[in-house]
């Protein structure tokens, strides 16, 4: 079975592998070099210590038997000894000298310290490594030369090198497997997210990525899932919005066309024609309002809606709006009460905020019966100002409250010409409140009225 390797997995895997391989080679080279150096130094130190040991024996008992004993000892060891006088004439040797040993003996050793010194340490190119230790036994003075074949050192270094190579190969193999596992674990979520974004780009929003943990990949996965849901919701809203627009535009246009056709008939009376023309005028006004609302929403969506905020004395401002709306309330037999006697200042766009309040008060007129009361009150709450518009009208059923600010959403599905409206007023009002750095909510109960709440930050007077 062939396991497919993705491009990103291969790329990351190779990159990590070569980087770690270079690091591993550098570390192994450093360790190998230092271990070889330390090992050679250990051999030289041991060789020098052995020569000093022979020197100490000679100085204690300088005798022919002692000399032979030292030579015999070295014949059975992997080292060789040569004992000379002060002029480097050989007194005794543990083996026959060869050219390598003669070359070392011929070196000018000058002054040799009591503890001895290294004569030859080049183990790669020479036949022997060597040390020399001086001795003084009564009137007899000379040198103890110690030799060790570099082939033995080279064999030791070769074994060490083989061990390093085996360890390096095993480490590289383990490193490769680890990197493959890690890159696969990293790239698999990325590949899933790539496929998810490809589905999103094709308009398929049925994306549901699994939980990938609490790290950055998990956060990215959750963000893509949220984005897919938002885009799906946006697509559904757009479809519903277009459907609602077509329906809302079709209704007044149908009225206008139908009554225009009737009004054009020559056999109808003038009073009847005037009534039809009034209906056509009303529907054209509704159509104009709807188009204006749609333009306002489009500007808000494109961040082209300009808000000019200024400091406003809220109570005087609200009383002015109430006076403007009072005749309409009086005509319907509804009492309008304004409860705001305090000195409160807020930063709002007076023109746009008036549009919000007029919309809410107009809804209160539409959905309240005669002999009821609508109250517009203001109070302070935790550094904010709360504007409350409360009516005693028909109210809003609980199941409709979460959707009341959506575009074209209506509680009254009958869409009557008297109460239907455009279905955009509350949506625009909420966005205008938010543009004024405020927030808006609604509380309502069917048959008991509705209360719209607007929170705005208070400023110093």
From TrEMBL:
Keywords assigned: ATP-binding, Cell membrane, Ion channel, Ion transport, Kinase, Membrane, Nucleotide-binding, Phosphoprotein, Transferase, Transmembrane, Transmembrane helix, Transport, Two-component regulatory system
InterPro entries: HAMP_dom, HATPase_C_sf, HATPase_dom, His_kinase_dom, HisK_dim/P_dom, HisK_dim/P_sf, HssS/ArlS-like, Sig_transdc_His_kin-like_C
EC number(s) stated in the UniProt entry for this protein: 2.7.13.3
Gene Ontology cellular-component annotations: plasma membrane
One Pfam entry name: HAMP
SMART domains found in the cross-reference section: HAMP, HATPase_c, HisKA
Organism the protein comes from: Bacillus thermotolerans (Quasibacillus thermotolerans)
GO MF annotation, one: ATP binding
GO biological process, one term: monoatomic ion transmembrane transport
Domain Histidine kinase: 244-460
Protein name: histidine kinase
Residue span, HAMP domain: 184-236
Chief subcellular location: membrane
Membrane disposition: Multi-pass membrane protein
